[in-house]
């Protein structure tokens, strides 16, 4: 199911774009960061499973290639449009109703901190239908439950087609539990994000 007219229209009215991934998603996320225009008019949050010391490298690489402002989330940061936020290692990233982030040190979810599920679930409560979430390659099921809550709250939910994913377990879990409103090939995801 490609990016149909309804999906394109929803993309235009989306305020928050959530990108979740783990093993096999780094290159895709890097390409997305390069693609998004400076005046996107949306908030972008990336939650990627990574080792604690890995951020300095990806932040530098992402920031050097991003047309949007890009930074790692700090506690109490206010969500601003035309900014890409990256969830920090060793914390869960929460979105509060006042329009700011808070960082949580509770136990790992699916052996991961940050957990995609945790951030997706917060977005479902705060942004509801004003949100779009894309779940990419990964080697566990993190993100599937959070994506289901997003879908049930009216958000647009997209899973990368498992055949295109380097590690298919993460998008497949979201498809299998009914969380994915759309299943898109990688080129279809890029076509959608490139639509103004």
Strand order of the largest sheet: 3-4-2-1-7-8-9
CATH architectural name = 3-Layer(aba) Sandwich
Task: Provide a count of the helices.
Answer: 7
CATH class: Alpha Beta
Query: CATH H-level name... which superfamily?
Result: Methylesterase CheB, C-terminal domain
Radius of gyration: 15 Å
Characterize the biggest β-sheet: 7 strands, parallel
- Report strand %: 15-25%
How far the N terminus sits from the C terminus, by CA atoms, comes to 20 Å
Based on Cα principal axes, name the global outline: globular
EC number: 3.1.1.61
Keywords: Chemotaxis, Hydrolase
Protein name: protein-glutamate methylesterase
Pfam family, one: CheB_methylest
Any overview of this molecule?
There is one protein chain. By secondary structure, the protein is of the alpha/beta class. It has a single domain, classed as Methylesterase CheB, C-terminal domain (Rossmann fold). The protein is built from 7 helices and 9 strands, in the order αβαβαββββαβαβαβα. It has a 7-stranded parallel sheet with strand order 3-4-2-1-7-8-9, with helices on both faces. The protein has a two-stranded antiparallel ribbon with strand order 5-6. Helix 5 runs parallel beside helix 6. The radius of gyration is 15 Å and the shape is globular. The model has no long low-confidence stretch (mean pLDDT 93).
Topology of this protein?
Elements: H1 5-13, E1 16-21, H2 26-35, E2 43-48, H3 55-65, E3 69-72, E4 83-86, E5 92-95, E6 101-104, H4 116-126, E7 131-135, H5 144-152, E8 156-160, H6 169-176, E9 182-184, H7 186-193
Parallel strand pairs: 1-2, 1-7, 2-4, 3-4, 7-8, 8-9
Antiparallel strand pairs: 5-6
